[in-house]
């Protein structure tokens, strides 16, 4: 394969990865707390002996999550929560504590607040939040204070990190803070009875999907023409020999 073929192949590989990301965004348009993903491309430029010549190869090096807030929708569920502005809930998983914007919680058999995967929601001190089984009503104030029948129980932890871009996505709506130790917010804004939706824009993602698909098809056509050109040159030189 010559330089043109290698250049085309690197571009196709990057487009294939980008299509996977866009398709995942489209599939999660209705997923609560989902953050749209994008792809970061890098370009490697190498000079060639020809005057003014050069070779540029592009590659999809990393994925990033869009931190913008999704639409907050009212559900009326007394354990549903949405964060207004910055911050993340923290849940306890078998792989360690993870951050999330998905605020649909319920009670497990032990009376602990958990997400749909059964991971326990943590308070500002990193402890699970327990609701007494005989509690008639649960109230969550804007600062995250959880009260049962008027008696304060705990404060939901809302955490921030120094660099949101450094978060590593895991399992759809969960993020690994890595070495960036999360810090509890002093005055968060928590909305009870609301859930934050996905921040994916359907029109933008569908338009991007069509654009990536067409670009990929053009790249495939280029590679096919390049392959045919090399075959023709080889056939011609073979006949002359």
Question: What fraction, in percent, of the residue positions are helical?
Answer: 25-40%
How would you classify the helix and strand content by structural class?
Answer: alpha+beta
Mean pLDDT: 87
Distance between the termini: 22 Å
Arrangement of strands in the largest sheet: 9-5-6-15-14
* Largest β sheet strand count, sense and barrel closure: 5 strands, antiparallel
The arrangement of helices and strands along the chain is HEEEEEEEEEEEEEEEEEEH
Any overview of this molecule?
With 241 residues, the protein is of the alpha+beta class. The chain folds into two domains: 3-67 and 200-240, no CATH class; 72-196, no CATH class. The protein is built from two helices and 18 strands. It has helices at residues 3-27, 202-240; strands at 37-47, 54-65, 72-74, 81-83, 89-93, 96-100, 106-107, 113-114, 120-121, 138-140, 145-148, 151-155, 159-160, 168-170, 174-176, 183-184, 190-192, 194-196. The strands form seven sheets. A five-stranded antiparallel beta sheet has the order 9-5-6-15-14, with no helix packed on it. Strands 10-11-12 form a three-stranded antiparallel beta sheet, with no helix packed on it. Strands 1-2 form a two-stranded antiparallel sheet. Helix 1 (3-27) runs antiparallel to helix 2 (202-240).
């Amino acid at each position: 394969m010559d330089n043109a073929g290698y250049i085309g192949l690197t571009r196709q590989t990057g487009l294939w990865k980008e299509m996977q990301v866009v398709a995942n965004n489209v599939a999660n348009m209705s997923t609560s707390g989902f953050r749209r993903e994008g792809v970061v491309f890098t370009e490697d430029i190498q000079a060639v002996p020809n005057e003014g010549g050069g070779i540029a190869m592009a590659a999809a090096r990393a994925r990033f999550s869009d931190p913008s807030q999704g639409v907050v929708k009212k559900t009326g569920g007394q354990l549903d929560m949405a964060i207004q502005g910055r911050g993340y809930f923290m849940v306890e998983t078998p792989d360690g504590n993870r951050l999330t914007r998905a605020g649909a919680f319920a009670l497990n058999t032990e009376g602990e607040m958990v997400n749909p995967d059964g991971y326990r929601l943590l308070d500002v001190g990193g402890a699970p939040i327990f609701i007494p089984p005989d509690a008639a009503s649960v109230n969550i104030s804007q600062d995250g204070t959880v009260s049962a029948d008027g008696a304060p129980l705990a404060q939901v932890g809302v955490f921030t990190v120094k660099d949101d871009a450094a978060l590593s996505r895991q399992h759809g709506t969960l993020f690994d803070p890595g070495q960036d130790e999360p810090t509890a917010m002093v005055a968060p804004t928590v909305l009870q009875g609301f859930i934050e939706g996905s921040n994916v824009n359907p029109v933008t993602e569908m338009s991007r999907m069509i654009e990536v698909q067409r670009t990929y098809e053009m790249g495939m056509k280029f590679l096919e023409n390049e392959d045919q050109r090399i075959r023709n040159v080889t056939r011609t030189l073979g006949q002359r020999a």
